[in-house]
Amino acid sequence: MKSMSGSTLRQLLPVGALALVALLTPKSAHACGGFFCSATNPVNQAAERIIFAKNADATVTAIIEIQYQGPSTSFSWLLPISGVPMGKDIGVASNIAFQRLQQATNPQYNLTVRVEGTCDQRPDTNNRGLVTGSAGNFAPPPDAAEGSGVTVEASGIVGAFEFAVISLDPKLKSPADAAVNWLGANGYDVPPGAPGLFGPYLEDGLNLLALRLKKGADSGAIRPIALTYPADKPMIPIKLTAVAANDDMGVMTWLLGDSRAVPQNYYALELNEARINWFSASATYNQVVTEAADDAGGQGFVTEQAGPTSALANVVWSTGEEQQWQRLQALPAGDTQSYNQAVQLYAQFDGFWEVVTDHVALPPGVTLDQLKQCPYCTQNLVADAGFVAALETDVVAPVKLVQDLIAAHAQITRLYTTMSAAEMTVDPLFTFNADLKVVNNVHTAERVIECSAGYYQDEAPWRIELPQGGVIRGGPSDLGNWPAGFASQPPNFAITRQGESGTGEVLEDNSGKIKSAIASYSDSVKAPPRRTTTSALGGCSMSGKPGSGGWALGLLGLALLCGRRRNS
Questions:
Q1: What is the C-alpha separation between 277 and 93, in angstroms, rounded?
Q2: Residues near 121 by Cβ (< 8 Å), separated by ≥ 6?
Q3: Using an 8 Å Cβ cutoff, are 368 and 221 in contact?
Q4: Cβ proximity of 77 and 94 under 8 Å
Q5: CA pseudo-torsion sign 425, 427, 430, 431
Q6: How many CB atoms lie within 10 A of CB 121?
Q7: What Å distances lie between residue 422 and 36, 65, 192, CA to CA?
Q8: pTM summary value
Q9: Distance between CA 261 and CA 127 in Å, rounded?
Q10: Is 445 helix (H, G, I), strand (E, B) or coil?
Q11: Cα(75)–Cα(19) distance, rounded to whole angstroms?
């Protein structure tokens, strides 16, 4: 079949510091952490992480991580949306939730070890050379001016952000220009190229949600945003991200629903696991994903995990943490103990030190930075009566929100890819397919040590049996080294197009080619030489090749020879 690979132009366009995200249409939900950036205030967008949940009431909830480095005064974030999210429909989540969810669903490539046969035993050890275990695992504005064509539909404060939702008069010749004028007049940093990028979304009648940091807020206070809105299917408007995308930028999304999620207008990629170094999977995995995505023209996702959400019941917020939180709430208000307990439990959580700033009086001469470095160095700090309530609102609830969202849905799917700017030409759309099987994020291959006489265990030949099929042979000198020639194999085991039912259409099947290449390599691997062993009874020696037909005859001849020497 003709290769799906294409040349990739990788370019980073330096413009102003503005975050731009398209997030809601009546038919599709949009979300992404796309940013504009300037050369002097670069945005760190090494990877994008998004959680989507398809809810039973015809809405979608999106939790979007924002990654930003630069002055807080230069930060702004725009999301074209349908409707006007208010109250419970917009809030903040927690980076801790993303970290825990990612860790629990990361791909793992485990290489177990089994000994076959019997090796010679070293005089000084019983288990020399036996290695077991894993090979590596893997972020209120003023009213619009009259006649501007802009209406402020809602405004308020959520976490460290001020937000406003504006609508544009459909009679405007250029709604994007009108939005940019309003943004500039209200202190948002908007680059010259912005109208051309979000103009098509506004021309479709979307509103614009604008967020910026509150006065005095540090950029370190930026947190994931949670939004719920009417929509049928999640979509990432990746075209907007192209402005500030790093080369081979990671895009990771979790999708929650009643069944497994699939990319509807992107390819579904199954990695060739022979390309992954099973001795050190974390060192090679991302490169294999990048090459697999490039093989699909830059528009494909790997399904890294898919299955019941029950497996993640205590991942983001555990039963034990809930019990600890209940005990903290029961402590007397406004005392030292509640502060000390809170530091122990939540010092690493988003928003914690902002709560301390507002509810714990520091002694003269002690700064918040000093307190962060040594939370217990200042004795008898007392939290005021509102401390625990603020912890619940700003620190604990944003973490629990993600766990509750997971619990409210039957299935979770994790998809991952990498993309460069020139590949971001189609917005990925996702749907759900009840006909597809679960995908385990834990992959296990077995290394079988082929023991026999003439080998200590760490000298014996071995073979690795891959889950996708194929046997890779090696010896002691190959241990830890993956065959260099495998880099020329296709990165994808298979590429399919998937939809809302069925198992999908196979567009590229490389399984035969891959297995043939593995077999050719293994056939070329020579068995390591056997040791020459001197017998204590007559000085007889033994040597040979594993599995050779002459080995049994050699043993018989050796026995006869030794017998004659003993009788002479």
A1: 36
A2: 456
A3: no
A4: no
A5: negative
A6: 12
A7: 16, 23, 20
A8: 0.77
A9: 46
A10: strand
A11: 7
Look up residue 230 and give its two tokens.
């009417």
Collapsed DSSP state (helix, strand, coil) of residue 197: helix
Q: Domain coordinates of the chain in residue numbers?
A: 18-105+139-260, 319-407, 533-563
Tokens of 333: 């208000």
CB 178 within 8 A of CB 172: yes
The per-residue pLDDT for 375 is 84
Phi, psi dihedral angles at 217 (to 5 degrees): -80, 140
Query: Amino acid letter at 129?
Result: G
pLDDT at residue 131 is higher than 70: no
Run of H or E including 415: strand 411-419
Helix (H, G, I), strand (E, B), or coil: what is residue 359?
A: helix
The residue among 219, 210, 215, 286 whose CA lies nearest residue 246 is 286
As to burial, measured by CB atoms within 10 angstroms (0-12 exposed, 13-18 middle, 19+ buried), residue 374 is: exposed
Can you point out the beta strands (E) in 55-143? 59-64, 76-81, 90-92, 108-116, 134-137
Tens of pLDDT, residues 386-401: 999 999 999 999 999 9
Number of neighbours of residue 477 by Cβ within 10 angstroms: 8
pLDDT at 332: 84
